[in-house]
Amino acid sequence: MGRAPESGGALHPGRDASGATGRGRRRVKKTSGLKIFGQPDPGVPKDVHLVGRYALGVDWADGHGSIYPFDRLRLDCACGQCATLEALASEMTWPAEIKRTDEGLAVTWVDRHASLYPYLALRALCRCAGCTGGH
C-alpha cells in the first residue's frame, strides 16, 4: 500500500498513491457568501430593522438573521478611528439615520460620524453561534 495522496492531488490511473504529488494544485480563495444559481444571494439583506432599543437586526435573503448591537457596530466601523476608541460616549453609539444603499448599509450616528458597512462585510461581522462556531 502506498501513502494517501495529499488533499487536492488527483491520483492518475495506473499509479499508486506514493507517486502522487501536490504539484499543480491551485489555491482557491475562500469567500463568504457564495452565490449559487437559483438560490438567494446570502450577501443581500431582505430586511433591516431595530431590535429593542440598542441593536440593529438584519434578515438576510438566505434566511439567516443577524443582530448587531449599536456599540459593537460603531467599533466595527471601517474608518480606522472608531476601532481605536477606548470608550464610546452615548451619542457615538446611537444612530441618527440608517439607510440601505447599493454599496451597503449606511449609518449616520448622532455625533454626525458616517459609517458604511458593505453587505458582505456586515454579514462577516455576525457573531451568532452559527457564524462563530458556537463560541
Main sheet specs: 3 strands, antiparallel
Strand content: 15-25%
* CATH domain fold name of the largest domain: NE0471 N-terminal domain-like
Ranges where pLDDT stays below 50 over 5 or more residues in a row are 4-12, 15-22, 24-31
- The structure class reads alpha+beta
User: How many domain regions?
Assistant: 2
How many strands?
A: 6
The backbone outline, from C-alpha atoms, is: globular
What is the CATH C-level name of the largest domain?
Answer: Alpha Beta
Give the radius of gyration: 22 Å
Structural description of this entry:
The structure is a single chain. This protein is of the alpha+beta class and 135 residues long. It folds into 2 domains: 1-30, no CATH class; 45-132, NE0471 N-terminal domain-like, CATH 3.30.2020.30. Helix content is 12%, strand content 24%. It has helices spanning 70-75, 119-124, 129-132, and strands at residues 45-51, 55-60, 65-69, 95-100, 105-109, 114-117. The strands form 2 sheets. Strands 1-2-3 form a 3-stranded antiparallel β-sheet. A hairpin with a 4-residue loop joins β2 and β3 (65-69). The protein is globular and about 45 Å long. 12% of the residues are buried. Mean pLDDT is 79; it is low at 4-12, 15-22 and 24-31.
